[in-house]
Specification:
The chain has about 425 residues and is mainly beta. Helix content is about 5%, strand content about 35%. The two termini are about 30 Å apart.
C-alpha cells in the first residue's frame, strides 16, 4: 500500500482570516483577452510537459512510491544570472495552492535571502491538510517551457539554517521537510490565488494568521509581509499568459505505471489556450470553493479542484457506505467498485453532473510500479476534494484571482 500524498492547501481552515485576500493580485493582468479558441499566434512556448508516475524517490529504507502525482521540471537561476542556474525535476503540479516551494536538499545553487524590515531573515510556515512546509523565503528567476518569472519569491523547505520551528507553526501539523515525507522535490502551486496569504498577512497584530516570520538568532516572531514579498503564484509574473493554467491529461482505466500530459499557461492569450466549449464555474473568492450536490444533499461552498491531491476525497464512510482500508484509513476500500454521480455548481449558477468511481485501494495499488490510479478515493468529511483522478480525460482550466480572461476576471475553474 502506498502512502497518502494529500497536498491540499489549508484554504478552508484559513478562510476566516484570509477573506480580504480575494481579488487583490499585485500583478498585472493579461493584455490579450481574445475569445474562445482565439488569441494571438504563439510567440513563446507556453506548454510544459507533465508526467504522472511514482515520482522521485528518497534513499532506502524511507523511499515510497507516489501515486497520482503530476510532476514537471523548472529551471531556477540566481536573479539576473544566466550561469548560476539549476533545472529541478520531480516538482508536483498543484492547482490547489499558490507559489513555488523547493526542498533545500534538491537545491544546489545559492539564492538571495529575503529579509524583514529589521534585517532578520524571513521564513514561512505554510499549512497543508496533511502537514506544513517550513523554510526561508528566497528569490529566484524561474523558467518553465518558454515562460519566465523574474525575481520570484519562493519557499525553500527544510533548510538546516532554520531547523527550530515555532510551536505556532507546528500547531498546524507535522513538517514535510524532506523527500521521504513530501514525496516530491518541490511543489509548483498554480492555483486560483495570486499570493499564498494576501492582505491578511500584510498587517501586524492578532489578526495576522501567522504564516510569515522574522527569524533573528534569538528566535522567530510573526511578521507582516507585503503582497510583493509574499510567495506568489509564478504565473502572475509571466510577461503574458499570466491569467491562468490548463491541465490536460489522458483518460485512465484502472491502474497504470505512468501517463504523460501537458500544462498550458494562459487562458485565451494564444491560439492553443482558448476556452472552447468549456463551462466556467466561478468560485467563492473568500473560500476558493463551489458547491457539490451528492445523493440529494447540497454541500454548499465545500468543493474544489486540486491536482495536488492524489485521490477524490469526499464525505465519510457513514455517508458513502464504503469502508476505509484497514492499513490506510485515508483511502476507501469497498469490496467492489462503486459508481457515483455528483453535480458541481458554480457561484454563477453553472452546473454539470460528474460521474466517478471508487475502487478498492488495496487492490488498485497492489503493485509498487503503479504511479497512476483512476478510482482512488478517500474520506474528507463534509467536503469534495476533486483530486487528480478528476483530471483524467479532461481539460481543466484554473483562472487566477484579479486576472482578466475571455470569460471575465478570475477566480474560476472551467472544464
Amino acid at each position: 500500500m502506498k502512502i497518502a500524498r494529500l497536498q491540499k492547501f489549508l484554504y478552508l481552515s484559513l478562510a476566516a482570516t484570509l477573506t480580504a485576500m480575494a481579488g487583490c493580485s499585485g500583478a498585472g493582468s493579461s493584455t490579450n483577452t481574445g475569445g474562445s479558441g482565439g488569441g494571438s499566434t504563439p510567440s513563446v512556448s507556453n506548454v510544459a510537459a507533465i508526467t504522472v508516475n511514482t515520482g522521485p524517490t528518497a534513499a532506502p529504507p524511507l523511499n515510497s512510491p507516489y501515486v497520482d502525482g503530476a510532476f514537471t521540471s523548472v529551471t531556477l537561476c540566481a536573479p539576473g544570472s544566466t550561469t548560476n542556474c539549476q533545472t529541478i525535476g520531480g516538482i508536483l503540479v498543484d492547482t490547489g495552492s499558490p507559489g513555488l516551494r523547493i526542498l533545500s536538499s534538491a537545491l544546489t545553487i545559492s539564492l538571495p535571502q529575503q529579509t524583514a524590515s529589521n534585517g532578520s531573515p524571513v521564513v514561512e510556515c505554510l499549512p497543508f491538510v496533511d502537514g506544513i512546509t517550513w523554510g526561508p523565503v528566497q528569490t529566484a528567476d524561474m523558467t518553465i517551457a518558454g515562460e519566465q518569472a523574474k525575481s520570484l519569491p519562493i519557499q525553500v523547505i527544510g533548510s538546516s539554517a532554520f531547523s527550530n520551528i515555532p510551536s505556532s507553526c507546528t500547531s498546524f501539523g507535522a513538517p514535510e521537510d524532506d523527500i521521504s515525507v513530501l514525496g516530491a522535490n518541490g511543489i509548483l502551486g498554480v492555483g486560483n490565488l495570486a499570493q499564498d496569504c494576501g492582505l491578511a498577512c500584510t498587517v501586524s497584530g492578532p489578526s495576522n494568521p501567522g504564516l510569515y516570520y522574522a527569524c533573528p538568532a534569538a528566535g522567530c516572531e510573526v511578521t507582516a509581509e507585503s503582497l510583493s514579498s509574499q510567495v506568489v503564484n509564478p504565473i502572475v509574473l509571466f510577461p503574458k499568459d499570466n491569467n491562468g493554467v490548463i491541465i490536460e491529461l489522458p483518460s485512465v482505466t484502472g491502474a497504470e505505471a505512468s501517463i504523460s500530459g501537458s500544462m498550458i499557461f494562459g487562458i485565451g492569450t494564444q491560439t492553443n489556450n482558448g476556452l472552447g466549449n468549456a463551462t466556467v464555474y466561478t468560485i467563492d473568492p473568500s473560500s476558493g470553493n463551489f458547491t457539490t450536490v451528492f445523493d440529494n444533499v447540497t454541500y454548499e461552498d465545500a468543493s474544489f479542484i486540486d491536482s495536488g491531491s492524489n485521490a477524490i476525497y469526499f464525505l465519510d464512510s457513514n455517508t458513502t457506505g464504503m469502508q476505509t482500508c484497514s492499513d490506510a484509513t485515508f483511502w476507501y476500500c469497498p469490496t467492489t467498485t462503486q459508481n457515483f454521480s455528483a453535480t458541481n455548481q458554480g457561484t454563477n449558477g453553472a452546473s454539470s453532473p460528474i460521474n466517478f468511481s471508487v475502487a478498492n485501494a488495496d487492490t488498485l495499488l497492489a503493485s509498487e510500479t503503479i504511479g497512476v490510479a483512476n478510482g482512488l478515493g478517500g474520506p474528507d468529511a463534509g467536503t469534495f476534494d476533486w483530486g487528480l483522478p478528476f483530471f483524467f480525460g479532461r481539460t481543466v482550466y484554473t483562472a487566477i484571482e484579479g486576472q482578466n480572461t475571455p470569460a471575465g476576471v478570475g477566480p474560476y475553474w472551467a472544464y
